[in-house]
Amino acid sequence: MNNPNDETVHCCAKCGEEGGASLKVCKACMVVKYCNANCQRNHWPTHKKECKQRAAELHDKALFKEDPPHKEECPICFVPMPVNIISCLSLPPATIKSVPIFDHARKNKELANLSAETYHSCCGKYICGGCVYSFCKSGNDLKCPFCNANRADKTDEVRFEERMKRVEANDASSMLVLGSHYYHGKLGLLRDQGKAIELWKQAAALGSSKAHYNLGNVFYEGGDLKKAKFHFGAAAVAGHEEARSKLGAMEAKSGNVERAIKHWNIAASAGHFHSMDHLRTGFEQGVISRDAIDSTLTAYNSSCKEMRSEARDAFIQTMAEINDHGM
């Protein structure tokens, strides 16, 4: 492997010509440089092995970095938001014998799949269920909790137009939501998976971890595990715990237990209950040490505590009652 500090990196790796700033670096390994595309193409048989090795090292460095991105917060209460609202439920701390939120989610699948946030196209904000619930309880259910815009009597056509305006303004969140409407056939739209994927790809290109996650799911369900892994990885690097947990499951299924545990440790430390339960099971099976799981349990319980609030508990309770009555 060439040393990035070596003078040879200022020369074309194929012909040796010095080019300084005009040389183009290999985008995969970020080490060797070339004076043109022909030199890069002709040098590939020689460079291929070390390039792939270096690219894999760079990928893992980004994927398993020690300080993951700060969790997104609700713009109203500033409490960190998880992927699913049930992660915010105030339950006893997890132990090596039990992860209460996981046990509760297994018994309440509707709540387990309920998003922690709702999107408002008027201002382009994601607002947590607790704040939306509190705002509605105060008698302001016909207005946006963030920008106070009127939300009453809006038809599907009007909501579609609102989202399209924000899509045209390159708003990744609107691309994500509109893609979901096409994927599920909501908002008066016909189901169109191709259109959904197109919008999610646009949102992903703008940095949306949720769009990468959706694409990962689509490709996984379609059997394209390489693309699924790529998108789950991009989402995980951006802090999407559910995507990272699924990466862990894919690695475990492939026999890469050590990599699976790394993913689940990072996700669990951020408060992902399913990953914490994977680790608890791993401890029972003897593949995870007591010191390692104790450290992750401490981080997991701390993250769960940060995501909780009375308003979120009240919202979850209300949703549970609605589900119990079959509404």
Overall description:
- The protein has 2 domains: 7-63, no CATH class; 85-324, Alpha Horseshoe (Serine Threonine Protein Phosphatase 5, Tetratricopeptide repeat), CATH 1.25.40.
- 56% of the residues lie in helices and 4% in strands.
- It has helices spanning 37-63, 100-107, 109-112, 129-137, 156-168, 172-184, 193-205, 209-221, 225-237, 241-253, 257-269, 273-284, 290-306, 310-324; strands at 24-25, 33-34, 117-120, 125-128.
- The termini are far apart.
- The model is unreliable at 1-8 (pLDDT under 50).
What is the averaged pLDDT score?
Answer: 91
Q: What's the architecture of the largest domain, going by CATH?
A: Alpha Horseshoe
Number of strand segments: 4
CATH class assignment of the largest domain:
Mainly Alpha
Number of helices: 14
CATH T-level topology of the largest domain: Serine Threonine Protein Phosphatase 5, Tetratricopeptide repeat
Report the structural category: mainly alpha
Task: Assign the CATH superfamily of the largest domain.
Answer: Tetratricopeptide repeat domain
Q: Give a quick account of the main beta sheet: strands, pairing sense, barrel closure.
A: 2 strands, antiparallel
What percent of the residues sit in helical stretches (DSSP H or I)? 55-70%
Rg of Cα set? 23 Å
In total, the number of domains comes to 2
Could you state the oligomeric state of the chains shown?
A: single chain
Distance between the first and last residues' Cα: 62 Å
How do the SSEs run, as a string of H and E?
EEHHHEEHHHHHHHHHHH
Task: Sum up the overall morphology in one term.
Answer: globular
Note the beta-strand portion. Answer: under 5%
The main sheet orders its strands as 1-2
Low-confidence stretches: 1-8
